[in-house]
Amino acid sequence: MTRLAVLGCGRIGQMHARNIARHSRTTLGAVFDVHRPAAEAIAAETGARITDTADEIFSNPDIDGVVISTSTDTHVTMIEAGVAAGKPMLCEKPIDLDLDRVNACAHLLSKGEVPVMLGFVRRFDPSHGAVRSAIANGDVGELHQVVITSRDPDLAPEAYLKVSGGIFRDMTIHDFDMARFILNEEIDTVFASGSRLVAPDLMDRLDDFDTVSIIMTTASGKQCVIGNSRRSVYGYDQRVEAFGSNGMASSENRKPHAMVLSGGGFSGKAAPCLDFFIERYNDAFNAEIDAFADVVEHGAPPPVSFEDGRQAQRLAEAALKSATGHRPVKMKEID
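and the corresponding C-alpha cells:
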C-alpha cells in the first residue's frame, strides 16, 4: 500500500483524505493543517495521524507521497520542501498567484528528480476523456472548434474570493487546462471579456469579474471558446464540445438520475445538474488518486505535469491582461 499524507484539511483536503483512506491502493498516513481542529476532524474520521508541522510529514520516511491542498500562497513553499525531501507530490491548482514565482519553481524542478503532479482533475473525467479520444481517433475529422462551458452554482464566500486571485486564476484556470487537453495544441492568441452581472457591488470592491467569455486561437487557426459564470441557478454546469469537419463530440452535464418526466402540457422535465465539483467529479477525483499512486509506486510520469499547471497559469494571465486592456493578447507577451 502506498502511504500518502495530506497537507491542508479544508474542503478539498478533506475530500482527498477520504478518497485516499478508501482507495484500494493507498493508505492515509498523516494529515496536517495550520488550523488543528480541521486536521483533528478528518483524522478522527479516517484514523490518520496528525502532525504539528508540514516538515514532520516531509521528513517522515514512512510517507511515500504528499498531497498539497493548503492555501494557494503556500503551494510553492510546500513544493520546495517536498523537492528537498525527495517526496512525490500532487499539488492543487493554481501553483501560485504570481507567475514569476511559478517560473522560479519550474526552474527548481527542471532537473526532474522529484515528480510533481498538478490537480487538474477534469482530465480524469471519463466523458471529457472520451471527447479527447474521439478527436484522436478521427471521429470528428479535422478539429475546428472547442467550446467549454463552466458555471458554478453560486458565488464563493467573499473571504475566499478576496484571496482567490480573481476568476481567471481561480475558476477559468481549469478551463484553460481543459482547452490545452482537448486541443492538444498550444494557444497563440487570447481575447477575453469580463463583466460584473451576478454581484456587481461585490465585484467592484474586489476589482474582479463574475461573468467572462474567452476566445482563444492556436497558430493553426483552431478556436476555443470558454464561457464562465459564478452563478448557475440550475446547478453545476460543465460541458465540453469538440466540433470538426466530420462531426461533433460532446461531454454533457451529470445529474442525480437520468429520469425525464413528461405530462400534460410539458415534456422533458429533468433533475437539475449535480450541485458542485466534488459531486460532479467524484469519479475523476478517485481516478486522480489512482494515477498519483502510479507516479509514487512505479515512477510513472505525472499525467498532469507542473508545466501543464504553468501553461494554464500563463493563459490566466493573458486573459486578465486582455480583459482589462480590451485587446487580444499574444502568448509571447506572457513570460
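(Above: one complete record from the training split.) The mean pLDDT is 97.
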